[in-house]
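User: Sequence in, structure out. Go.
Assistant: Echoing your sequence, followed by the C-alpha cells.
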Amino acid sequence: MLDYKIHAENDSMYNTPACWAIYVCGLVFQHLLAKGGLSAVQQNNEAKAKLIYDAIEGSNGFYANPVDPACRSLMNVPFTIPAKPELEKVFIKEAEALGMTQLKGHRSVGGMRASIYNAMPMEGVQALASFMQQFAAKHA
C-alpha cells in the first residue's frame, strides 16, 4: 500500500495516494525554492538561532539554556531565568504585550521556548533577542 510502484502498476486504483498532502508538499517546495533553496533556508535558520543563543549566552547568566551545545535545535530554543524563576511569568506576559506569543515553555520543563521555524521571519527573531536583552538589563 505504501509502495508507489504498486500504485503505478494498478493505474492508481490500488489505493488513492494522499493528494492533499502531496499538493501541500508541492507548495512548500515552491516556497523553499523561492527563498533560495535548502542551503539558503538553512543559513537563515542558523542565523536566527544564533541571535537567540547569543542573547542567552551574552546575558551574563541571567538566561540559561539547559541543552548541551552539541545537541541544540535550530527550531526550538528553550531558556530559563535560573536566578529568578519568578520572572519567567513576567517575561512571558511582557512579551505577549509586545505581540510575541507562545513563548511559554513545555509543561514538563517550564521556562520559555522560542519556536523559530521556517515561517518565523528574521525580524521576529530580532525583536525577541532585543526584548530579551532589554528585559535582562531591567531585571538584572
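User: And one key feature?
Assistant: The chain has a mean pLDDT of 93.
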